[in-house]
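Sequence in, structure out.
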Amino acid sequence: MSASESTQHLPVPPVAPDTSHRRLRVAQGILLLFHVTGFLGLAFSKDPSFYLQFVPLNLLLTAVLLFAFQRERNFAFLSFCLTTMAVGFFVEVVGIQTGRIFGQYSYGETLGLKWLGVPLIIGLNWVMLTYMGGVLARYLPLPGFLRAVVGALLLVGMDVCLEPVAVRYDFWTWAYDLIPLQNFKGWFAVALILQVFFNRSSFEKHNPLVPFVYLLQLLFFFGLGLFIR
């Protein structure tokens, strides 16, 4: 066996701590730049439509960077992502068609291309939120179901901050311009089911970028909500 052949079977060395730390800081810097730019544009620009066209791109960029720090992307992780994406999307389809899950609402044009009345990117949003809620909940020494409850509450908390911004910038609109309590109940129920599924999926549930992304998005929507009132 030649030297070159023997080296093909050597284990890949882990990423050095300094390199990993730099990658994390670069990702955080990119996300901070995009969110601060979007915040300033939406809060102070006379033409927020210019910035709104980048909302789907910002969501895609956040997802790419977030999942780049998921170290174990095995079949179970892929299955979790695809299943959560499908469940989240079709729950929204049923929601807008019947009004029985979240209340009576319809999607605007800001979130991009739609199918069956629901933006395609909504499925990805459910994956990201479920994933972040699940990872954050694992910081707490709780049994499985209580951890799922905490994860679901983290999703509802994000929605509470998101709703005023979403309505203002045509993400979606509510019948009678009133956000119903049913919306938050529906969010909690769906989020809880997906959190249980997350906990039962067999992949590594640690991601150093998750706390930063969750806090960044929470502050983004909460702060923007204060400016538009």
